[in-house]
Design brief:
GO molecular function (chain A): ATP binding; ATP hydrolysis activity
Structural class of chain B: mainly alpha
Order of helices and strands of chain B: HHHHHHHEEHHHHHHHHH
Low-confidence stretches of chain B: 1-31
Shape of chain B: globular
Distance between the termini of chain A: 35 Å
CATH topology of chain A: Rossmann fold
Pfam families (chain A): ABC_tran
Strand order of the largest sheet of chain A: 6-7-8-3-9-10
Strand content of chain A: 25-35%
GO cellular component, one term (chain A): plasma membrane
CATH superfamily of chain A: P-loop containing nucleotide triphosphate hydrolases
Number of helices of chain A: 10
Largest sheet of chain B: 2 strands, antiparallel
Oligomer: heterodimer
Protein name (chain A): ABC transporter ATP-binding protein
Keywords (chain A): ATP-binding, Nucleotide-binding, Transport
Helix content of chain B: over 70%
Radius of gyration of chain B: 21 Å
Shape of chain A: globular
Largest sheet of chain A: 6 strands, mixed
Distance between the termini of chain B: 55 Å
Chain lengths: 243, 363
């Protein structure tokens, strides 16, 4: 298994956000994390990415216990996160945003002395082209539409060639067309990267995911393939109840 | 000095109208015309000509201002580029000053090729020690922690210097022998002026190279969204400690020049007042541009000099009001009259941009 999170408990003061949640993701697997509002999806993502420290439980990544790793160490181990709130660097150009992400694991010497020529330049432009942003390479990121900023952020999260990408609500605020394109943009990364995706749009999840985990009140309600989950009675119930 | 100041002010107001006319468009994405190199060129030419038109006592004053501008660069590196709020920059400036003063007093070492590297090294060492303590935790330290830590460091050094007999106590170390190279002695005057101007230019160019490299891009990421770039895998604490140490080294260099130029060092030089002064230079001129720090130092010092001459009693109040007005209405400093936001942040893949345009035009 690429990622194994087990027995994750997270308590904020009196609120128990996660109560023994678990998540396993295999190589080249697109895994959807769904559940009603407040079920702990985002918190679980944060515990995996290192933005929050779980009160209890263990996270293993590529057979290493990373529970105590800082976000930097997790990134260097091959894990990448796209935040729920877009956090591209607005005053920098798209090109520089990608370059910043691409150079994150370079040595100090490379940072000071390398220039964007040749291979590095091609890498930046490939990422931008792949996410349909190449013609705006030298605009400030702040000038992009919301949807484009999300794509830029996904491109940045992928720049370091992670083994696992954690996407927190990538299609939030997007139009239907933008959602469809996002799905298309994500497909090719399956060859080299697994994906955990938190999303409210169930159609989107169903289209791109292999497996699903359903959270409810901080616990795993069900986990399995998309068709298994669709057939699951208790999952249908919580979604009906909330609807 | 007034000539320099007027030249800069005239240049600023001349281009300000243009910038106003263009409105925000200048800041948005029209990176075509570069303002920064023009400003830098004007400042350099004005600085080169200054001793030719200034009276001797003003050249001495101008030398002091150039040294303070070098000091201001060090703060711009740590605050303007890396977003580290250091309220203790004088600690590195002053400790290097004391260090070289002791070398001159106790060991008779005044050779420029020994004392300046020694001063730089002292600044670097102190910055590494303090920076290591304040910045190198397992998790990034908060802005408040760092600013209070540096402030306390500077304050403590001030008290220590005042109480330590070996360092001359309240009086500091007077009558430091002049800096020498071979048999030549650098005393106040044009030679010393051009020496510090040369050093400032070299250090400026090195800093400029650094902040425009991809290390500079990492710094931009650091000050805009530290948490985000940690998630990319940047070792943000290391980046901060490195730039803090470089800033300390530059401050140390400036401090050793200052000690030899003034001929004495005293506890204020490591203290909170000087630490705050350098913050004002950079905020006044405009942080994150390098040249803004230089302009800020020149204008703040120039204006105080002129005011103290003409309004003997109330000049600190006038200066305070002026500083307040700039910070209220021009939070990005005087440089923002001519410099758009886009150019200030800069473009780190600029060379590639030309390639693309050429490629587009080719077929």
């Amino acid at each position: 298994m690429l990622l194994e999170a087990a027995g994750i408990k997270k308590i904020f003061g009196k609120l128990t956000a996660l109560d023994g949640a678990a998540l396993t993701v295999g190589e080249n697997e697109f895994h959807g994390l769904i559940g009603p509002n407040g079920s702990g999806k985002s918190t679980l993502m944060k515990c995996i990415a290192g933005a929050e420290v779980p009160t209890q439980g263990k996270v293993s990544f590529i057979n290493t216990d990373i529970t105590a790793f800082t976000p930097t160490e997790r990134a260097r181990a091959g894990m990448s996160l796209k935040f729920q709130i877009t956090s591209v660097l607005p005053s920098l150009t798209l090109y520089d945003n990608i370059l910043l992400a691409l150079q994150a694991q370079s040595s100090l010497f490379d940072l000071v002395f390398s220039r964007t020529r040749g291979a590095l330049h091609d890498q930046v432009m490939t990422m931008l082209t792949q996410f349909r942003l190449a013609d705006r390479a030298f605009d400030a990121a702040a000038a992009l539409s919301h949807g484009q900023q999300q794509w830029l952020e996904i491109a940045m999260a992928l720049a370091g060639k992670p083994r696992l990408l954690l996407l927190d609500e990538p299609t939030g605020g997007m139009s239907l067309e933008e959602r469809r394109v996002t799905g298309e943009l994500l497909q090719p990364i399956k060859q080299h990267c697994s994906l955990v995706i938190v999303e409210h749009d169930l159609d989107f999840i169903r289209d791109i995911c292999d497996r699903l985990t359903v959270l409810d009140q901080g616990k795993v309600l069900a986990s399995g393939t998309v068709s298994e989950i669709q057939a699951n009675k208790s999952v249908q119930e919580i979604y009906l109840r909330r609807a | 000095m007034s000539v320099v100041r007027e030249a800069i002010v005239a240049d600023a107001s001349g281009e300000a109208d243009e910038a106003m006319a263009e409105g925000t468009a200048a800041g948005q994405g029209r990176a075509g015309r570069k303002v920064l190199p023009i400003v830098e060129g004007v400042v350099l030419v004005a600085a080169l000509l200054a001793p030719l038109v200034l009276q001797d006592y003003l050249t001495v004053f101008a030398t002091r201002v150039i040294i303070l501008a070098l000091f201001a660069l060090s703060f711009d590196l740590v605050w303007g580029y890396a977003g580290i709020m250091s309220f203790g920059q004088a600690l590195f400036f002053g400790s290097a000053g004391y260090g070289v003063a002791l070398l001159a007093r106790d060991l008779d070492i005044t050779n420029i090729f020994l004392v300046l590297p020694a001063g730089t090294l002292i600044g670097l060492t102190f910055a590494l020690l303090l920076g290591g303590f304040l910045l190198l935790g397992r998790h990034p330290s908060s802005v408040i922690f760092v600013s209070l830590g540096t402030l306390t460091g500077s304050y403590a050094a001030d008290r220590l210097a005042r109480g330590w007999y070996y360092l001359g106590g309240q009086n500091g170390i007077p009558s430091i022998a002049p800096m020498t190279v071979g048999g030549y002695e650098f005393t106040e005057g044009p030679a010393f002026y051009y020496l510090v101007l040369g050093i400032l230019t070299v250090v400026y160019l090195l800093c400029r190279f650094l902040v425009r490299s991809q290390f500079g891009l990492a710094l931009a990421g650091l000050r805009e969204n530290e948490q985000r770039i940690a998630f990319f895998g940047y070792k943000v604490q290391h980046l901060k400690a490195i730039i803090f140490a470089i800033g300390g080294a530059v401050a140390g260099l400036a401090g050793s020049l200052y000690a030899f130029h003034e001929g004495f060092v005293w506890p204020n030089m490591v203290g909170v007042v000087v630490s705050t002064q350098v913050v004002l230079y950079v905020l006044f001129g405009g942080s994150g541009t390098l040249v803004g720090a230089v302009i800020g130092a020149v204008i703040v010092e120039g204006v105080s000099f002129w005011l103290s001459d003409n309004y003997r009693d109330i000049w600190p109040i006038i200066l305070g009001l002026l500083l307040l007005l700039v910070i209220l209405f021009r939070p990005l400093g005087l440089i923002s009259f001519v410099l758009g936001e886009r150019e200030r942040v800069g473009s780190f893949g600029a060379k590639a941009k030309k390639n693309i345009k050429e490629k587009r035009n080719a077929p």
